[in-house]
């Protein structure tokens, strides 16, 4: 039997991140389409309901105790709360802004992860990466377009969601020993509970076509969560997080194809700064790891 090397783990992790982000972009586009007719809480609850319907046979096979009796339960619950609020922020913001704009703001996640990793993962971040974080957030400000009053609130909600999303990534990394089924089941159940609380006040009966789209929303969300969770378990966050940028490409194409929206100049300029900064951070982290592996004293960069 051939052993799986760390390099192979990283390659699998990258592929899973790419697949997960592709599914999430499709999910986000469906959410943008549906949020024009249905409240955010309903989208959360119904998509989670479909997700749980898919998960229940898997949970029954593994055993409910094995799936839900986890170590570090408080960390799981905090992660569930963070990811659910992040999803709600995204769906609300994308109802007002182009999909690519919101996705670009969310792509500041590697910058936020870099900053949060100092606190939660006790990682050392050198001045070059801090400079890249600063440049990246200049890009975020450009995308936010603070002089455009109509777009400011949705843009700020998107930035809040990106920050919460980044925190969720950190907590997922802290739970690297947890089973993938446990992570996805807790997240799906949490979305069902949190969305369900508001459901009596926000229910709107969908037609059959929208009902099927709501079901697809749950399927793509479940697939995306599963792939990204597994990706973060196989590979360090610094390796796989940069590959989230593929979602911007899909978002631009979907904006053009479905809504006829072309990317704005500020999104292109700000997005370039955000992506460039994220890739620079990734490059510096890889150089540091290579130097450490070679025995070089490059702990401070």
UniProtKB/TrEMBL annotation:
Superkingdom per UniProt: Bacteria
PANTHER family: ACYL-MALONYL CONDENSING ENZYME-RELATED, BLR4310 PROTEIN
Transmembrane segments: 12-34, 40-59, 80-97, 103-121, 130-146, 152-171, 183-203, 209-228, 240-259, 265-282
A Gene Ontology term for the protein's cellular component: membrane
Protein name stated in the entry: DMT family transporter
Keyword Iron tagged: no
A Pfam family per the record: EamA
Residue ranges of domain EamA in the record: 12-144, 156-281
Protein keywords: Membrane, Transmembrane, Transmembrane helix
InterPro entries: EamA_dom, EmrE-like
């Amino acid at each position: 039997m051939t052993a799986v090397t760390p390099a192979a783990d990283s390659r699998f992790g990258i592929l899973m991140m790419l697949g997960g982000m592709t599914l999430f972009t499709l999910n986000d586009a469906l959410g943008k389409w549906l949020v024009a007719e249905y409240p955010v809480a309903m989208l959360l609850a119904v998509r989670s309901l479909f997700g749980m319907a898919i998960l229940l046979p898997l949970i029954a096979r593994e055993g409910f105790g094995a799936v839900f009796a986890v170590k570090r339960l408080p960390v799981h619950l905090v992660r569930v709360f963070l990811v659910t609020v992040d999803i709600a922020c995204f769906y609300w913001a994308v109802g007002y802004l182009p999909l690519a704009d919101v996705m670009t703001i969310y792509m500041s996640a590697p910058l936020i992860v870099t900053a949060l990793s100092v606190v939660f993962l006790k990682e050392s971040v050198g001045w070059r990466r801090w400079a890249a974080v600063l440049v990246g957030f200049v890009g975020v400000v450009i995308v936010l377009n603070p002089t455009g009053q109509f777009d400011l609130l949705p843009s700020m909600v998107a930035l809040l969601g990106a920050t919460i999303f980044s925190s969720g990534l950190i907590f997922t990394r802290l739970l690297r020993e947890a089973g993938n089924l446990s992570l996805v089941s807790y997240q799906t159940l949490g979305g069902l509970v949190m969305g369900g609380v508001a459901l009596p006040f926000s229910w709107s009966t969908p037609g059959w076509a929208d009902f099927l789209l709501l079901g697809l929303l749950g399927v793509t969300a479940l697939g995306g969560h599963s792939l990204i969770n597994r990706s973060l378990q196989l590979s360090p966050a610094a390796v796989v997080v940069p590959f989230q940028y593929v979602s911007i490409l899909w978002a631009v194409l979907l904006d053009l194809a479905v809504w006829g929206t072309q990317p704005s100049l500020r999104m292109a300029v700000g997005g370039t700064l955000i992506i460039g900064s994220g890739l620079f951070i990734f490059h510096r982290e890889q150089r540091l790891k290579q130097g450490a592996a070679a025995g070089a004293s490059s702990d401070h960069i």
